[in-house]
Design brief:
It is a single chain. This protein is an alpha/beta fold. Helices cover about 35% and strands about 15% of the residues. It folds into two domains: about 200 residues, 3-Layer(aba) Sandwich (Rossmann fold); about 180 residues, Rossmann fold (3-Layer(aba) Sandwich). The longest helix has 15 residues. It is globular. The C terminus is likely disordered.
Length: about 425
């Protein structure tokens, strides 16, 4: 099957050909005709499957087929969880719409408000936004959403993880009742299903891969290691493997900053990308990483959404995620669009429960491989993991994992009683301007 069989017009097909694409991916084969048909859509697709083009291409076609705009208000709204993803999606709109006379804009926090207001006043057809900045602009009466005919909620699972549910509901109330709504999510949960019930009307369901399944093109393995030797192991792997581009995930912003300093001390160029970094710093780090000038990009989960790099060879979970679904998102940065990739996870005695939850979610046993010279102390005692002002317990007491994970515990403090553990494995809510 070629793109020409999917109902796309010549200017769009020409833009696709300019990018070197000849055959649509599975999600594109299913989503493009569904969006062109005009109905609502609930789509499940792993990151790296080409889902962004799966909705931008038919949206461009629908606007091309529609009557010319009679106002400057946006006709399409695409909502994304992070700044990086918003910029990536809007770049895709411009890439595939370069032979069309359609206008697009991207708005997100961390940069000046007034240049965005001026661009909206000049008029846009397609607006890509993060929730917080979108609501700020509406509150400033700089944004009219009454003409939106197509609404896209991209990476809805991450939206919920980041605590955006209330902002999403506010945005939905600002949109016309008669519209086409598209919801894309890498993973499905009961919360996603509940959101879909409120957002979508008799949607078509598309799933191109089993839920929470990792791509077969990704070689996954786990390296047991002592907690105080993680950084040396990472430097060893980068140097011995002659890695020139590796995306490294840490649990906290502080951990990312510290690791960058340590890698620099070992002669490895690295920069951090997380919510405390300015948008200018985040953009610069990502640009240098994509160009190959930067050997290691150290990121937290939230900041890494939207990182789209062709042929990214290595992803390292320096800290295992305490939310199992994040493992799928993290390693999905490599092995994209059929390319091969390698995902390596470090495992300390403190994190064995996290690994058990990941293996249960993905329904696979991840192979463990000891790196010579970095053998883990099997008699080491697990410790609670600090995360901001709270502690999380990720241990099953030993590296040879068996049995169900215990409820997370938190040590009591003199001024506060011990928690019952209800929220200890949850990720702290992020501010809406992420």
């Amino acid at each position: 099957m070629s793109f020409s069989t999917l109902g796309l017009s010549e200017p769009i097909l020409r833009a696709i050909a300019d990018e070197g694409y000849t055959e649509p991916t599975p999600i594109q084969k299913s989503a493009i005709p569904a969006v062109l048909a005009g109905g609502d859509l609930l789509a499940g697709a792993q990151t790296g499957t080409g889902k962004t083009a799966g909705f931008t291409l038919p949206i461009l076609q629908r606007l091309l087929d529609a009557s010319p705009a009679v106002s400057k208000a946006p006709r399409v709204l695409i909502l994304t969880p992070t700044r990086e993803l918003a910029a990536q999606v809007e770049a895709s709109v411009r890439t595939y719409g370069k032979y069309l006379s359609l206008r697009s804009a991207v708005v997100f926090g961390g940069v000046g408000l007034h240049p965005q207001i001026e661009k909206l006043r000049r008029g846009v057809d397609i607006l890509v936004a993060t929730p917080g900045r979108l609501l700020d602009l509406h509150q400033q009466k700089a944004l009219d959403l009454s003409k939106v005919s197509i609404f896209v909620l991209d990476e809805a699972d991450r939206m919920l993880d980041m605590g955006f549910i209330h902002d999403i509901k506010k945005v939905m109330k600002l949109l016309p009742a008669q519209r086409q709504s598209l919801l894309f999510s890498a993973t499905f949960s009961e919360d996603i299903k509940n959101l879909a019930d409120k957002l979508l009307k008799s949607p078509q369901l598309i799933e191109v891969a089993r839920r929470n399944k990792t791509a077969e093109t990704i070689l996954q393995k786990v390296h047991p290691v002592d907690r105080d030797r993680k950084q040396k192991l990472l430097s060893h792997l980068i140097k011995s493997g002659d890695w020139h581009q590796v995306l490294v995930f840490t649990r906290t912003k502080h951990g990312a900053n510290k690791l960058v300093e340590q890698l620099g001390g070992d002669g490895i160029t690295a920069m951090a990308i997380h919510g405390n970094k300015s948008q200018t710093a985040r953009t610069r780090a990502l640009a240098e990483f994509k160009s190959g000038d930067l050997r290691a990009l150290v990121a937290t989960d939230i900041a890494a959404r939207g990182i789209d790099i062709d042929q990214l060879p290595h992803v390292v979970n320096y800290d295992l995620p305490n939310v199992a679904e994040d493992y799928v998102h993290r390693i999905g940065r490599t092995g994209r669009a059929g390319a091969s990739g390698e995902a390596i996870s470090f495992l300390t005695v403190d994190e064995t429960r996290f690994l058990a939850e990941i293996e249960r979610l993905t329904q696979q046993n991840l192979p463990q491989e000891v790196v010579p010279g970095f053998e883990a102390d099997m008699n080491a005692q697990p410790m609670p993991i600090p995360m901001g002002r709270q502690y999380i317990n990720g241990s099953l007491k030993k590296l040879n994992i068996s049995g169900p994970p215990p409820r997370a515990a938190r040590p009591a403090s003199p001024s506060r009683p011990a928690s019952k553990g209800r929220h200890q494995s949850a990720k702290p809510r992020q501010s809406r301007g992420a």
